[in-house]
Amino acid sequence: MIRFGIIALLVAIPLWAPWMDTKGVENITKEVFEAFGPVASSCYDSEGKLLHEGVEVSWYPLGRLVHTCAGDYVIWVWGAIKEQGGVYKRSNELQAVQSKAITCADVIERQEQRLATTTDSTLIEYTGTYATEPDFAIFKEASEHRRILSEGLKRGPTFAGKFTVVEWGCGSNCQQHAVLDVESGLVVAYGPQTEYGVEYSLDSTLLVTNPKDALPPLPESAYETENLALTIARLPREYYRLTTDALSGSQYLVRLCVESSATGYIELEDDRLGLVDEDEK
Q1: Which parts of the chain are beta strand (E)?
Q2: What's the pTM value of the predicted model, to 2 decimals?
Q3: Does 265 or 254 have the greater pLDDT score?
Q4: Where are the domains of the chain?
């Protein structure tokens, strides 16, 4: 009888392994997340090298082992869940571990990848009749710029398939913007305010304020360079996505990320600011 029980156990355990389980990895990891909360999807060492990404599920004696960035977890056959410890405790080589700061470039890249998998990711340029008058149903305050916005509608779509971006001055080194649906004339966004304009395209829903390519080159003199660099550094670069509400079908700009306009700009010229050691040049 004991021998039969041992044989039955040896047969049952492999059959219960994740690769034979109809529940699948998603349900297994869901149990861990419900018990301990969400965990980081990626971990990096102190030099920014990727050490581990994603969630791995493997067989474990009388259970399953869920291997994540935050730690290892065991789901026992009787339903109990136990945290086994940090994922890096199993190797002496991975001691200096820190989270890598996510940048706006990372945010945009990941969202672009997700959007590419959706069925409505392709933008089609609107070729119908253009509205002749702006509709201020959402942004009534935009009506004070009626003439400028009406002129903008005449140009047709310049952004995200069927929208146009209109820009006008609001003082020294100041621009204000609005986004209009060229078919209906509806003002779907009013603002934002910039010092170096915006970047957008007809085949994208992304709009960027104070883009890097619009920034002026740094002067030759160290004094002028430092002043301009400090001015650029204080400016925000904002990333917006034109989003369509799934229920109402209405569009609006959603801010995805904000960074200093110096990102990708100052470090290209930082030797002029004396930020690079002579030995590193």
Answers
A1: 42-45, 50-53, 56-60, 63-67, 72-76, 81-85, 97-98, 163-169, 175-181, 187-194, 198-199, 206-209, 236-244, 251-260
A2: 0.62
A3: 254
A4: 2-98, 104-280
